[in-house]
Amino acid sequence: MLFDSQQILDQAKQGDETAKGELLNRFRPYLNVIAQRMLDERLQGRMDAADVVQTTYLEASRDFLQFRGESIESLLSWLANILRNNVATAHQEHLVAQKRSARKEVVLRVASESGGSSLGIADLVSSESSTPSQRLMRDEAAVVLSACLNKIPETQREAIRMRYLEGMSLKSISDRTGKSEMAVAGLLKRGLRALREVMA
After folding, report:
1. Domains with residue ranges and CATH for the chain
2. Segment 14-61, tens digit of pLDDT
3. I need a surface site. Which of 3, 47, 51, 171 has the fewest CB within 10 A?
């Protein structure tokens, strides 16, 4: 594969656009692995490694004439450097910018409401946004909540996400998951109990 890639690199450096596209596509998996390792865990749920890889791909395609290397190894190094810069930019935009004001203490609460259980989402976010999910995505509390949810079983986590973050009804969740409404209610009850234990 490396020998074949070297031939394609030579063609790309001679101005063959098709060869350039094929060459860069070959190393998407390589860049994806690196991006997943580089991305700060606090960015999980806000952006995907594939987004950074796509940006890197576009920039590499645009600036390919600036690549002065002759080998696949030097190409990989060049691509990794572009990726590294894009990851740094992502961290700057999504993390540092959020800390311009004093860091708020994040409190997570699970409370009983109207005979059932619900997440105290309103306590985690500012009041100017329109919906809980929009506020969570813009607030640092979303990161903490996500970390806690990731510690409970997936089926319970998804049920809680659909019910409390997407605002879906039990029937809608039942239709999407193929489970009965009673089964969905059971998942929510067990999930909230597990979430309390995680946050205790």
Report:
1. 2-97 (1.10.1740.10), 110-199 (1.10.10.10)
2. 889 999 989 898 888 888 888 888 877 666 556 678 888 899 999 999
3. 3
